[in-house]
Amino acid sequence: xxxxxxxxxxxxxxxxxxxxxxxxxxxxxxxxxxxxxxxxxxxxxxxxxxxxxxxxxxxxxxxxxxxxxxxxxxxxxxxxxxxxxxxxxxxxxxxxxxxxxxxxxxxxxxxxxxxxxxxxxxxxxxxxxxxxxxxxxxxxxxxxxxxxxxxxxxxxxxxxxxxxxxxxxxxxxxxxxxxxxxxxxxxxxxxxxxxxxxxxxxxxxxxxxxxxxxxxxxxxxxxxxxxxxxxxxxxxxxxxxxxxxxxxxxxxxxxxxxxxxxxxxxxxxxxxxxxxxxxxxxxxxxxxxxxxxxxxxxxxxxxxxxxxxxxxxxxxxxxxxxxxxxxxxxxxxxxxxxxxxxxxxxxxxxxxxxxxxxxxxxxxxxxxxxxxxxxxxxxxxxxxxxxxxxxxxxxxxxxxxxxxxxxxxxxxxxxxxxxxxxxxxxxxxxxxxxxxxxxxxxxxxxxxxxxxxxxxxxxxxxxxxxxxxxxxxxxxxxxxxxxxxxxxxxxxxxxxxxxxxxxxxxxxx
Length: 509
Ligand SMILES: Cc1cc2nc3c(=O)[nH]c(=O)nc-3n(C[C@H](O)[C@H](O)[C@H](O)COP(=O)(O)OP(=O)(O)OC[C@H]3O[C@@H](n4cnc5c(N)ncnc54)[C@H](O)[C@@H]3O)c2cc1C
Ligand SMILES: *[C@@H]1O[C@H](CO)[C@@H](O)[C@H](O)[C@H]1NC(C)=O
Ligand SMILES: *[C@@H]1O[C@H](CO)[C@@H](O)[C@H](O)[C@H]1NC(C)=O
Prior knowledge:
Number of helices: 15
Bound molecules: flavin-adenine dinucleotide, 2-acetamido-2-deoxy-beta-D-glucopyranose
CATH architecture of the domain at 3-73 and 254-338 and 444-508: 3-Layer(bba) Sandwich
């Protein structure tokens, strides 16, 4: 049986089955449920979408998740020696509530925490170094950054407070049709200003000094997004939340979340590349016609296609990220939206660090810094350097000093040459390089983001990357898209793009 007839049989069967078990009920229940949903991409966004779609539409719908590469997407691990290490998305904020919910639901513990120690490198030497003692750190920071650091934390908290509103809206089922509307619902006009200005402009107008921006803020935006303080204020503020010491990760690797969500959502993984999505109109028993999305894909056993009621695109529609043609849509849909993704190269090195590369006069055996951020300078070839712990922390593990051979992760805009590696490390026994098109190049002023709705029942999850590309943002977008798909299927407009939710919900509570 070909895939096409198989899918038709399944459709017919489901149709009979659904009409068989449904007893006459209220008008909204008479509305048929969708039968098949496709999700393109099995990163955290796509797999979270499968999870939330199952939650919205119930057990009856078949959910297929297409993945051309490896489940996890920008969450990936690399094996070095006896252990696995993260080569993509690394750290999760304690207030990322969706991700927290996922680990609880799936039953994977967070990874055991190993205390870290940060330093800042200006291309020649370490200009700041944390000590093991909180009180010393406090005075060192105060000495170097004055009260700027405290004020920064307070400013970031006001942004975070507004950010957290999204969880309540989503809990009550509210959804948004564009990234701008979603941001506006969280933080009002102030969030639209944030996304339309550079972080530098925003913080200067809040009274922070240029020196503080160069010495403290820029190293953080470089380690988080491989870009300068000229990224927009929203993604910039989120990157500053990463300075929280309670950042966590998933035991066994962050990509386990994606596998867990796939399993939990009872969706089917189809290892294939989606090449195009079109519209197919079929006569229908009830109405005049029904339209389906025809998803064409190429897998190991050649090319095939299938029909779906709803499709969610969970991969960036950008050059180098995906190549999906949309045919038969009016107005036409592009394969690639304007704007580009930024290259970040993760080089994992199992070796011995050359501490003099960092201008340190310490003995390597006394060098216990685990995270080196960098200031922007012509001498900096790297964005950051971190001593990585394995994705699963073995019993009795403690992070060795720099004199031991261990795994370091170097992030840089370009691949490292052999000479550069020889400069940074005195010796190594293995190197693994991953070239990521990691995140959008964030350059304000803000250009309109692509919409969450590409066509009636065709959704675009990755539009959210233009607000900020983080695991949690993909999860928020996944829930938003699942809610949109549900409300629009059942024609419930009252939960979409509502204004003033914050004031209204305060009144309701
Ligand atoms: C080096 C690096 C460090 C990062 N650090 C952090 C961090 O510390 N904290 C944090 O929160 N975030 C971090 N991020 C960002 C985070 O990893 C991403 O925001 C998140 O993983 C994006 O998930 P996604 O599912 O939306 O997209 P992706 O993970 O990109 O998933 C898209 C998937 O679609 C698949 N695909 C593409 N085209 C097709 C097609 N035609 N057919 C079928 N499948 C297709 C791809 O193979 C991919 O698996 C980091 C990212 C990188 C690269
Ligand atoms: C963004 O800023 C530009 C000027 O820098 C302005 O023209 C534009 O209207 C702003 N857009 C929004 C959405 O605020
Ligand atoms: C270590 O780094 C210093 C400073 O960059 C450099 O002069 C030296 O050659 C490096 N040592 C090794 C063994 O590569």
